[in-house]
Amino acid sequence: MAIQLSHCSSSSTTFSSLHHETSYFSKWVTEIHFRRQLRNHFELKSANGYPLNAVPMQDGSVAKPLEEEVPFPEFGETNSMLSITVVGASGDLAKKKIFPALFALYYEDWLPENFVVYGYARTKMTDEELRNMISKTLTCRIDSRENCQAKMEEFLKRCFYHSGQYNSPEDFLELNCKLKEREGGKLSNRLFYLSIPPNIFVDVVRCASTKASSATGWTRVIVEKPFGRDSDSSRELTKCLMQYLTEDQIFRIDHYLGKELVENLSVLRFSNLVFEPLWSRNYIRNVQFIFSEDFGTEGRGGYFDNYGIIRDIMQNHLLQILALFAMETPVSLDAEDIRNEKVKVLKSMKPLQLEDVIVGQYKGHSKGGKSYPGYIDDPTVPKDSVTPTFAAAALFINNARWDGVPFLMKAGKALHTKRAEIRVQFRHVPGNLYKRNFGTDLDKATNELVLRLQPDEAIYLKINNKVPGLGMRLDRSDLNLLYRTRYTREIPDAYERLLLDAIEGERRLFIRSDELHAAWTLFTPLLKEMEEKKIMPELYPYGSRGPVGAHYLAAKHDVRWGDLTGED
């Protein structure tokens, strides 16, 4: 079933022209707060315990470091107001991710002094009922501080609710009145988070932009995937949204781009001399992007059957990470420079061929006296469904850096383990002096860099090493950076980072419209061919390692899946 978009009227009122005049100032205000927080959280100190910018005096004392000179520092903090509206507030995503992420930002003092959170949905609910609902999912996840309960109560006092229809301008006008009352005449910055099905995106954006946008500050809208289900529906969705918003106001969120290890990918490559020279076809044999879940659709079968694993995971999460991994060095860390390079990668990719794709679907299985249902056993899934719950694909980039290097993707549900990782397998050592120690299987001697996104975030490099003792026996060892061991602070959830970026106007982890178009251009022909030919997925047991066909696909390109070696 294709996504039905609301009718787009070309005569609609667009966002206030004041947006362009005030957005620079409001952004400057929030960036002052952001820089101060960064200085407090990440101030570097020298061996003597003093800050690195401390000034030594003749008498041996140390002068206080010079403060950053910022004009009118307190003006923005006391005279602007951030209003966050979570549209679809009664849904699972809002309860389990968005409200907890906002509380975590508040708990860690990342939100501005003046802010308010509104929930908006069709469900009839009071302010107190909303607070009771979201309080069940709020946690002080970082540690057990004594003020946890107090901070939670303070946060809940800033949360309010407004019930209304998603296509009702009158209901959004009432929301606007409530927001204005809370803002109290302050400079107003408004963020709308659309935690709703895509078929009502346009209705909400039309109503919010014409009836509830800020008249003095910025208005931004976070849009959750799916962004269409093929090139045509995605293009139509973008066209409709842009009748009411500018590209700079639309924040298309992909929560995988907010994960710590994805954020660290560019740092690892561009700030370490040991890696950047190796980042090409000269040294890299293949790259693998692996996503697996150890559970099935479990109640989401109706939604999932309309999209399948390729649209749900590969076309967005894994492809976005691939683009970040393979891009050329950007001119700067500016959002547009980074996104420009990602688009170049996507446009350079070889069209996907059906023979380079394997699809599967999990079936029922019994293990240890327990029965696990198959995909079509879900009552919300048609019994004759051929929707894939597993897919593996080989992709290629036609440019000088990556010519001939297979980029393998694999994503599946109801597999033997839960994991998400990037695996970089390097080429064999030419004329390896120790090849006789590895026998005929040179793959055992291959260096491999692994970035494990979840669970237990880690970066490790597989190297060959001599086993201590007499004689010459080699094995593969790991140089391991396990995050939970090295860093005591718990890693923030991806939604925290992305929400904070949207508030700050930082767009580099959000998807631009031309990125989205390039991604769909790559996958749409394949998806249409699969649907026209009614490609039957290979069945695999619930809790297994997936279809056998995935191994043949990897072997076809002289690759061995790194997660199936039994070494991790």
From TrEMBL:
Record flagged with keyword NADP: yes
InterPro entries: G6P_DH (IPR001282), G6P_DH_AS (IPR019796), G6P_DH_C (IPR022675), G6P_DH_NAD-bd (IPR022674), NAD(P)-bd_dom_sf (IPR036291)
The protein's enzyme class: oxidoreductase
Catalytic function, reaction form: D-glucose 6-phosphate + NADP(+) = 6-phospho-D-glucono-1,5-lactone + NADPH + H(+)
Glucose-6-phosphate dehydrogenase C-terminal domain location: 267-561
Keyword tags: Carbohydrate metabolism, Glucose metabolism, NADP, Oxidoreductase
Gene Ontology MF: a single term: glucose-6-phosphate dehydrogenase activity
Residue ranges of domain Glucose-6-phosphate dehydrogenase NAD-binding in the record: 86-264
Pfam families from the UniProt entry: G6PD_C, G6PD_N
Pathway this chain belongs to: Carbohydrate degradation; pentose phosphate pathway; D-ribulose 5-phosphate from D-glucose 6-phosphate (oxidative stage): step 1/3
Signal peptide: none
Listed transmembrane segments: none
Protein's job: Catalyzes the rate-limiting step of the oxidative pentose-phosphate pathway, which represents a route for the dissimilation of carbohydrates besides glycolysis. The main function of this enzyme is to provide reducing power (NADPH) and pentose phosphates for fatty acid and nucleic acid synthesis which are involved in membrane synthesis and cell division.
Family according to the record: Belongs to the glucose-6-phosphate dehydrogenase family.
Full protein name: Glucose-6-phosphate 1-dehydrogenase
Taxonomic source organism: Forsythia ovata
Taxonomic lineage: Eukaryota, Viridiplantae, Streptophyta, Embryophyta, Tracheophyta
